[in-house]
Amino acid sequence: MARYDADTTTLGTLLDDPDVVAILDKHAPGLSTNPMIGMAKAMPASQAIGMASGMIGADKAEAIRAEVEALE
Which helix (H) or strand (E) holds 61? Predict the structure, then answer.
């Protein structure tokens, strides 16, 4: 069973998990510590990742989502 569902889990919850932070920083170094990320912590992760795709690219955003949802 997956640890997270990006449609229902908030970005803030994901940022509390070191495994997720490692995934974020692997695909987009510095994303997890970007000062603007605080504004998105209450959003569902899928919405926040979708917004980030404009900054990091859709391919990286999709890779992040896929790896996060693959965590068990």
Answer: helix 58-70
